[in-house]
Amino acid sequence: MSSRFEKGMATRRTVLGDNHVDRVEANKEAFDEPFQTLITEGAWGTVWASDRVSMRDRSMLTLAILAAMGNFEEIPMHIRATANTGATKDDVLEAFLHVAIYAGVPRANHAIKLAKQTFVEMETETANK
């Protein structure tokens, strides 16, 4: 494996958590292995691993972009990642308020709905530990 892959995997585990990454790795097949390598090296080993933007700010940027583009399926995963990046509920709301103004109220509304559901799930999981 390349050093960028190794750095990406370490960053991915820091942000998303071992359980998530282990689950993805266990489900990886020959068909999607090139994609997993691409995102591990590119997204996690290059973009997320950069120290030019804090993990907190990168989390907020990612959530805002996902919502603005209508990529709602990824939002719960990145809401869960806020537990590791330092982005607070207030930070997430601010990111989605920007989405409402610059990308549309319906997209922000749906993103907020997903965030609320995911935060409740996270609180329930924490209480049950």
UniProtKB/TrEMBL annotation:
From which domain of life does this come? Bacteria
Q: Known Gene3D superfamilies for this protein?
A: AhpD-like
**Every Carboxymuconolactone decarboxylase-like domain range:** 35-116
Gene Ontology MF annotations: peroxiredoxin activity
A Pfam family for this UniProt protein?
CMD
Q: What is this protein called?
A: 4-carboxymuconolactone decarboxylase
UniProt lists the gene as: pcaC
